[in-house]
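Practice problem 4.
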């Protein structure tokens, strides 16, 4: 193995958002100049301001910018960069990109292209790991990809089984199939999503390991032949096969098992002559048996929890290894200190099935410094969250002497984290961290499905304190900073949130307002309360509001049709007018609207076609995920504005289905 020293002075980060900011932070500390790249959609992104110089590399679509190898290499040449760090996602595990960077005479901060290629395809990786005596889940990873072969192999493996994209990760192109009847549809949808996300529709099949933990080992290798591991991370709390909460070390792994898994991971890394940071991912069953799933040949999103318990800066290690330096420690010098937990804050509508969201960033208030929590982000109040990229917008990491201390710190920090303008999973994260099962370490990959169903449903209506706080914020935004302004303007107001409407009756008193609140459609007597504003800044969007003698801090903002409010650890959106129809009213008249701005990747019907209830009509792609729009009932496609390859804006009409005559008569 070559141990050539290669010094470099200017690092181009071929990525965006929080990971670009995080890499530049370490690069600056080491005295390197930095170069950012950005798409047209990211022209005002904060990661640009963190760099010494920046280069626009193309249009918003990833294929025209962050996945454009030629544009990134040219950006490095034009900016004077002599090294490239790929971050994670995008081209981080693209062997052709590593080769192009090296061919241009630049240092690639990552593993050799041969190692990326060997482990970048799940089928090839599994064949290599089996040859290296790594325990693997039984399955099929052959070259034949026709349905007949896959159906036959599935019969041999048995159900339930997993269909996985051979070329990718992050849960994309992955389907759990419980019986043979569901397999053809799963193969079709997995192929489509895999081709869109990774440029390959190759699939593998694996026996489903029921209720396992997802445990990964962080490995690091240098060009001098040294390979070590830095312990494990537990990434079992997932939704749609994508990680939500990660922690280190795993509560299910003791010293003996850690040693066995670590030795297996190091042995596998040596077998492929690996260099740099990498992660071996395993399924761990209840009996302590572990099975190789895949290797990620890059820095992981969750690397921060490993940094917290080891005290090492993994990006610094990547840069030093890329320059030809040896690893700074040996295996017996690695010590794990305490416990760390990380959550991924995403711009998603949780009750809508974690539907990615984009839009204006009206308020961004990360946890206060006293929370003792690391926050990695590239968010700026007044900016926007684009729909073209991954929905993760920030990471929060807490470190404690033990798991419970880390959990408590992180829970309080999440409840103190306000992002207004688009829906996020902030409340869902807090609910997961607070759940007795998580606190009690009853964790596996089915945790969300088993324990969090209530949190996945439509949100509960706000309590009267929240409704009262919304009234105060509304008054502050609409008047001269005094809540009485609203009371003089109108004696009653209707607030809508979470599918419920509050009728509020206000009257001015000597010390603020007297408020009477009643939920429409409820027979309960109205709730009476006293409300006053103790401190407020309408421009900054903050206030201290007292309800019945108890003061609550608020963060608030308004746009044309809605008031956004953060109070007592939760974000709320109140339309500023009575909605003319329910959220699902579109289904009643057959008008199907785009739930978010997205690219139309497939239109499966034509005008005049007869469709059945639940039939897939249009497939959208946004933030690297596919979303299928289905017929709300049996009928005929009366309108079809959607066109394959086109762009759909949020709320735009995709199709309209007219119900069958028989259904109309029954109705």
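Answer key:
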């Amino acid at each position: 193995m070559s141990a050539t020293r290669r010094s470099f002075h200017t690092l181009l980060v071929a990525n965006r958002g929080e990971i670009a900011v995080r890499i530049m932070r370490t690069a600056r500390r080491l005295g390197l100049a930095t170069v950012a790249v950005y798409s047209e959609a990211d022209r005002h992104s904060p990661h640009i301001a963190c760099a010494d110089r920046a280069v626009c590399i193309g249009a918003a679509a990833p294929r025209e910018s962050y996945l454009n190898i030629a544009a990134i290499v040219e950006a490095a040449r034009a900016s004077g960069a002599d090294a490239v760090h790929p971050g994670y996602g995008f081209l981080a595990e693209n062997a052709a990109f590593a080769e192009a960077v090296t061919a241009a005479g630049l240092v690639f901060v990552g593993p050799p292209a041969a190692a990326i290629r060997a482990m970048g395809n799940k089928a090839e990786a599994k064949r290599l790991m089996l040859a290296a005596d790594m325990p693997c889940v039984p399955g099929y990873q052959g070259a034949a990809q026709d349905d007949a072969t896959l159906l036959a192999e599935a019969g041999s493996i048995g159900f339930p089984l997993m269909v996985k994209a051979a070329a990718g990760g992050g849960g994309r192109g992955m389907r759990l199939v419980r019986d043979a009847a569901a397999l053809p549809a799963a193969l079709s949808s997995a192929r489509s999503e895999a081709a869109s996300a990774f440029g390959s529709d190759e699939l593998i099949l694996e026996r489903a390991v029921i209720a396992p933990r997802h445990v990964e080992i962080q490995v690091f290798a240098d060009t001098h032949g040294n390979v070590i591991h830095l312990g494990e991370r537990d990434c079992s709390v997932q939704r749609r096969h994508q990680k939500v909460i990660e922690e280190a070390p795993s509560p299910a792994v003791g010293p003996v098992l850690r040693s066995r898994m670590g030795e297996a991971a190091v042995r596998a890394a040596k077998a492929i002559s690996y260099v740099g940071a990498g992660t071996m991912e395993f399924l761990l069953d209840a009996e302590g048996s572990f099975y190789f799933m895949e290797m990620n040949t890059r820095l992981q999103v969750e690397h921060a929890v490993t940094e917290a318990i080891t005290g090492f800066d993994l990006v610094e290690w990547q840069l030093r290894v890329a320059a030809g330096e040896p690893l700074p420690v040996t295996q017996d010098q690695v010590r794990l200190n305490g416990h760390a937990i990380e959550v991924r804050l995403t711009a998603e509508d949780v009750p809508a099935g974690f539907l990615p969201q984009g839009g204006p960033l009206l308020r961004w208030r990360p946890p206060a410094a006293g929370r003792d929590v690391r926050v990695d982000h590239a968010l700026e109040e007044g900016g926007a969250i684009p729909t073209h990229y991954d929905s993760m917008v920030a990471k929060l990491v807490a470190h404690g002497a033990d798991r419970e201390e880390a959990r408590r710190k992180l829970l309080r920090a999440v409840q103190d984290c306000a992002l207004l303008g688009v829906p996020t999973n902030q409340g869902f994260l807090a609910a997961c961290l607070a759940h007795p099962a998580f606190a009690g370490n009853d964790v596996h990959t089915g945790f969300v499905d088993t324990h969090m169903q209530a949190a996945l449903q439509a949100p509960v209506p706000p309590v009267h304190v929240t409704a009262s706080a919304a009234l105060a914020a509304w008054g502050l935004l609409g008047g001269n900073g005094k809540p009485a302004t609203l009371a003089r303007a109108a004696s009653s107001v209707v607030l809508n949130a979470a599918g419920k409407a509050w009728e509020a009756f206000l009257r001015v008193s000597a010390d603020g307002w007297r408020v009477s609140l009643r939920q429409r459609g409820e027979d309960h007597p109205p709730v009476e309360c006293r409300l006053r504003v103790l401190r407020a800044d309408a421009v900054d969007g903050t206030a201290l509001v007292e309800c019945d003698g108890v003061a609550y801090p608020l963060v608030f903002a308004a746009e044309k049709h809605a008031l956004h409010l953060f109070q007592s650890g939760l974000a709320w959106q109140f339309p500023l007018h009575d909605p003319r129809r329910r959220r699902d009213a579109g289904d009643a008249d057959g008008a199907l609207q785009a739930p978010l701005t997205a690219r139309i990747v497939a239109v499966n019907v034509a005008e005049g076609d007869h469709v059945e209830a639940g039939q897939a009509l249009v497939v959208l792609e946004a933030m690297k995920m596919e979303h299928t729009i289905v017929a709300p009932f049996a009928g005929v496609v009366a309108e079809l504005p959607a066109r394959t390859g086109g762009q759909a804006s949020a709320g735009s009409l995709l199709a309209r289905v007219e119900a069958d005559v028989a259904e109309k008569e029954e109705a």
